[in-house]
Amino acid sequence: MKAVIIENYGGKEELKDAVVADPKAGAGQVVVQLKATSINPIDWKLREGYLKQMMDWPFPIILGWDAAGIISEVGADVTDWQVGDKVFARPETTRFGTYAEYTVVDAPLLAKIPDNVSFEEAASIPLAGLTAWQALFDHGSLQAGEKVLIHAGAGGVGTLAIQLAKNAGAYVVTTASEKNAAFLKELGADEVIDYRTTNFADVLTDIDLVFDTMGGDIQKDSFQVLKEGTGRLISIVSEPDQDLAKAKNILAKSIWLQPNGEQLQKIADLMASGKVKAVVGETFPFSAKGVYDAHALSETHHAKGKIVVRFE
After folding, report:
1. C-alpha–C-alpha distance, residues 296 and 12, integer Å
2. DSSP label at 134?
3. Residue 125, exposed/middle/buried by CB under 10 A (0-12, 13-18, 19+)?
4. What is the bridge-based pairing of β-strands 306-310 and 280-285?
5. Among 68, 74, 73, 71, residue whose Cα is nearest residue 36
6. In the predicted model, what is the mean pLDDT of residues 242-270?
7. Torsion (CA) 308, 182, 185, 264 in degrees, nearest 10
8. Could you tell me which residues come within 8 angstroms of residue 155 by beta carbon, excluding any fewer than 6 positions away?
């Protein structure tokens, strides 16, 4: 099969077209013929070598951890899925990712693509959607009526977090540029703060939950707006300062996504009913050049929604 691989850590020029062996489904697994995948910051962070201590893999490495396509092979002990099913998933993190025509997925990680959702839309959801779900609900314990601040609302994770939080009955505040304010309000944001003109820490108080996608000074300033004693700060970028957390007697932690087919199916059901929609900003063709261009856009940190790679 065709794949886009890296054989060394480094810049985008390390992305190469290659022909590699087709994957085979083991017990409890399926093979998915990819119709689309998407780009996440973990892709280019791993390509650059920033995560090599955490993921000490031999080369070549196939990046990518969003799968949307059609099941082409079913392994032993798989009873809930069959060849021809349209599925999407955030597969386990291995060196055999989704920048390839076929990929292996553990059956419990699969979810059905709703009839009203395209492969491109489905591919944009798994990693970002599960990240948002787990940050808001599993770790952030967000409840109806609470106030949540979601940083960088126009990004891939942010657009989904806004919708999931609003659907759960929260009051949703987000930071973004003015040009995206109307769009984010359509998604469900109650308040959009223009980060270019306003410091959120000057205008917000009594926030129950901060979902930090930025780190650095933004994470540090987020402590100021949280409710003392009951506030929570959940980060997906860096470990929060525990001295600041203790000073306000609040929960502050960084999390790492756990692939979860059951949660992905819940998001799929919300998409089927129109309560959550995918936001695909840009689409690129599947090739080393297409992935190169997709990484370049992701690295700007200013992509709107998700960046998708489509298999022709």
Report:
1. 8
2. I
3. buried
4. parallel
5. 68
6. 98
7. 0
8. 213, 301, 303, 304, 305
Pairing of strands 209-212, 191-194: unpaired
CA angle 162, 167, 173 (to 5 degrees): 35
Cβ neighbors of 303 (< 8 A, separation 6 or more) are 155, 156, 281, 282, 297
What are 148-161's pLDDT values in tens digits? Answer: 999 999 999 999 99
Q: What is the CA radius of gyration of the chain?
A: 19
> Residue 15's pLDDT is what?
98
CB 174 within 8 A of CB 200: no
C-beta of residue 249 within 8 angstroms of C-beta of residue 228: yes
Q: How far, CA to CA in Å, does 265 sit from each of 42, 89, 127, 246, 305?
A: 23, 9, 13, 37, 20
The encoded tokens of residue 247 equal 């000073």
Element holding 133 (H helix, E strand): helix 126-133
Give the dihedral of Cα atoms 177, 182, 186, 192; nearest 10 deg: 50
Residue-wise pLDDT for 182-235, tens only, equals: 999 999 999 999 999 999 999 999 999 999 999 999 999 999 999 999 999 999
Cα distance between the two ends of the chain: 14
Contacts of 167 (CB under 8 A, 6+ apart): 188, 270, 275, 276
> Would you call the peptide bond into 60 cis, given omega within 30 degrees of 0 as the criterion?
yes
- Is the pLDDT assigned to residue 35 strictly greater than 90? yes
